[in-house]
């Protein structure tokens, strides 16, 4: 194989790898954060405390999501991170639940209630099925940067809402 053929193959492979990395980062998507004020919310679900990448958190999220889409519980799945979910070096408190207008009484066995007071947030909606969907770290970074640009102070509460449309609304609670 000639030197120019090897160089061409190397450059093609390099362009492919850089292109795939860029797609994985989600930089092709234009994230346009918006501000919103939420009314009080009532959630039923379970608390988790530990590492964000722990299989136990993934299992809890899978269980609650399945229950929300099968109709076992009406409402959309919501995940509240009481801290920065991008920080994997320390434990984080998380509430995984279903958003309810009227809580079932009594609460289903093993589930707890979380009352969320009225709050403001910045958010973006992401379609996870989109090939160019950004990774969560980029989304959260975009939300933090937007809040700073708008002169808003982060409450360090990150929220993921799994909408019935299939999109995921990523939010950062702000003051």
Automatic annotation (TrEMBL):
<protein>
    <recommendedName>
        <fullName>GyrI-like small molecule binding domain-containing protein</fullName>
    </recommendedName>
</protein>
